Amino acid sequence: MSRVSENSSLNSINYAVGKSKSKVEDLQLKGSTLKRLSKPSDDPIGNVEMMAIRSQNVDATQYLRNLNFAQSHLSYTENILEEMTDILVKAKELAVGQASSIHSPEIREGVAKEIHQMRNQMLGLANKRIGNRYLFAGQKVLTRPFDQEGQYSGDKNKINIEINKDVFIPINLNGSDLFFTKGKAPLQREQLDLTPPGIDIDTPNLQRTPANGAESEQNVSVSLFDELRSLENALLTDNPQIIQGLLERLDSSIERVVTHRTEIGALANTVSNAETNIEKTKLLNDAHKSKIEDADVAELMSDLQKEQAVLKATYRASSNLMNVSLM
């Protein structure tokens, strides 16, 4: 027959009471926070999933910031392209109206002043900024892209921004692609030799054809500013032939601007769709997180009442045991 010491009984009582109190305290903590997981040991697998969801939500928050920045950048650019299109269409209308020989030099001089203002407006749009960042300077966003002569000082690089994991889109147009023609084009001498007689105007972006006036294929780099200045000069010199030769180039410039505007619109749609998808993903993550983390209130209250009853029973049994003595 074995003998149970008083210390052994006391240790058993302390262990039973401590274990029951610990369960009650844990349930009370979960009841106050309504969270099933208060520490990793509550559900190790669920805790791993929770960490992954939190990481995804942090990334999603940053992607939404990137998307908001991209959306504002693209919207501002699209508005500028719309203004550019209006200017070029108006210039084309004036050129069509002045291409015939029925107008007097005085009328063409007045139209030339209007074209001059359009060129200044175009330069202003080309040097637009958001904050202190130039829109059409490529990645040289702190460098003014165009001077008064229309010379480009930016680069041809795109600014790419991450809108989802490993998904990047460009959010800018560089001035070289937007304001200058690209590739080769057949040119007539009379279409390029647009400087009025006796006036020395520097047109560094124009490459002239041979002196015999024969048509040739040349590498050309003609900007919108050159075309508008050429139209202005043709009006000042009362030269309808040159005006007629510029109509096709104005059409090409309008088409190029509209093409870039379409590109910006497509990128804006991509940004909008990406923002919608990220918001949906965040909602799904929050729902899954709630299933893992949140406690079942009814079950929690039931468990708490049960453990409180167990604790009271433990107290009563311990009290009876402690009152028993050899005397």
Describe this entry's structure for a reader:
The chain is mainly α and 327 residues long. The protein has eight helices and six strands. The protein has helices at residues 6-33, 44-98, 105-126, 175-179, 189-192, 224-236, 240-293, 297-323; strands at 129-130, 133-134, 160-164, 167-170, 184-187, 216-219. The strands form three sheets. Strands 1-2 form a two-stranded antiparallel ribbon. A two-stranded antiparallel ribbon has the order 3-4. β3 and β4 form a beta hairpin. The radius of gyration is 39 Å and the shape is rod-shaped. The two termini are 20 Å apart. Mean pLDDT is 79; it is low at 183-218.
Task: Give the spatial strand order of the biggest sheet.
Answer: 1-2
Q: How far is the first residue's CA from the last residue's CA?
A: 20 Å
Radius of gyration: 39 Å
Helix-and-strand structural type? mainly alpha
Q: Into which percent range does the helicity of residues fall?
A: 55-70%
Low-confidence stretches: 183-218
Overall geometric form: rod-shaped
Largest sheet: 2 strands, antiparallel
What is the tally of beta strands?
6
Number of helical regions: 8
Query: What's the pLDDT, averaged over the residues?
Result: 79
N-to-C SSE series? HHHEEEEHEHEHHH
**β-sheet strand percentage:** 5-15%
